[in-house]
Design goal:
The protein has about 525 residues and is of the alpha+beta class. The protein has helices spanning about 10-20, 25-30, 35-50, 60-75, 90-95, 100-115, 120-130, 190-205, 235-245, 260-270, 280-295, 305-315, 400-405, 410-420, 420-430, 440-450, 450-455, 455-465, 475-480, 490-500, 510-515, and strands at about 145-155, 160, 165, 170-175, 180-185, 210-215, 220-225, 230, 245-250, 330-335, 340-345, 350, 360-365, 370-375, 375-385, 390. A hairpin with a 3-residue loop joins strand 13 and strand 14 (about 370-375).
Amino acid sequence: MSHRRFEMYHYRQILVRMRQGDSDRRLAKAGLIGRHKAAQLRQLARQQGWLDTSQPLPADHLLSPVLEAVRDASGDSPSGSHSRVEPYREAVTAWWEQGIQATTIHQALKREYGFQGSYFAVRRFVNTLAATHPEVTVALDFAPGEAAQIDFGRGPDMVDVYTGKVIRSWFFIMTLAWSRHQYAECVPDQSTVTWLGCHRRAFEWFGGVPRHLIVDNAKCAITRACYYDPEVQRAYGEYAEGYGFKIDACPPREPQKKGRVEAGVKFVKRSFTPTRTFRTLADANAQLQAWVLEVGNRQHGTTHEQPLRRFQEVEKPLLGHLPDVPPQLATWAQVKVYRDGHVRFAEGRYSVPFVLSGQTLWLKATETVVQLFNDHHLVAAHPRLSKPGEHATVEDHLPPQAQAYLQQTPQWCLQQAQAVGGACHALIERLLADPVVVQRRAAQGIIRLAQRYGNARLDAACQRALWFDDPRYRTVKTILAKGLDQLSGSEQVFDQLADSYTGAGKFCRDIGSLLNH
């Protein structure tokens, strides 16, 4: 009985029995108080005049200050316990208020103060602090149509009957805060597109839009969680603007701010999932929607009303109107432009102007279109690619030399050579017919020589190169650079004869040269 916790009404009952003449032994036998403590209390009561039956027993607020001193002195209350941590109360309390755990506090006491007590002594002391400083919460109240709470929860695994693959799933739950009516859907992932699509279907299910949406800090909604300045996912922000609702992100590590949907997720897991089998996601969602309408007619434990009835009779008309044209389902992402002038998104490659290489752009992807922005300016747009490894390239985005190479096809080269002259056309035709090496760049280079030397000289140089059976870019360029295309007829013959010299003798030539001339 020495460690029994006595409340005020216990002391009052004992004092009444003492005033009626009960002895300490009788009080102890009745189990009201120990004999030793009864003797202490009787002595105090005599001193205070509480046993005088001619006077009424004082009220509790007058008894309490005197009795508290007895309780503390006797060790009957926690404040009377002698913990080895008591001398360090101020430091321990400061650490505990910062959220530091008991094991760390124990280590700090040993390191800083040479504490010799055990970890369990620290833990008991911390538990006492928690008991004397309980966490206070405030029940949130919402008006009809004011808010909805949203959360994801782990769904069942199922085997697809068509592919045989195991499908992991999640529950998307949106609960109206006032009526507790909810929308539930089974989804394969928690991506931004899935998140936005579930919102659209939930609003269509309710037939309206709540003014506020209370969400957790999932990446599909909040890109940077912060108590004061959370950063909203760009696509989600556009969606909120399009539907006309405001996003209310819960502070980090405070899921109780959306306790109604948290309870809804648990209810779905415990009431819907067990004893059911699902063939596909579509089958699971068909069963889930029927279940929501069924359990929506139950009596809610808090409101003591049927959520579906509360929703239909009161809340539904107070929801915001659905827009005539729903906002686009879009995904925003920051992407880097690689050296090849392309960005990568969803295993596809999309081109942008080559001058943006190395920069970071914003990419907006819908189901059909991919757009790229630089400082809010649209710089490129492509159809959405559907197969991994595909690329979408606009020739105007490429560097000039790359554009020239792609545009100046072999057919183009032959057309340009025909405009220069017959010899040029013949040389280009022969060059492009090389069976081993692709000579496209060489043909383009020869045709560009006309810009510097003119068509007539280029055609003459090509004729000379053909005569020597050397139809190469370097040969034509050397002929033009040295002016060999401008030699007179006699000079050309002498030049040809000089080239036929084999080095066998001063006046010797081979049989082929003699027969040809």
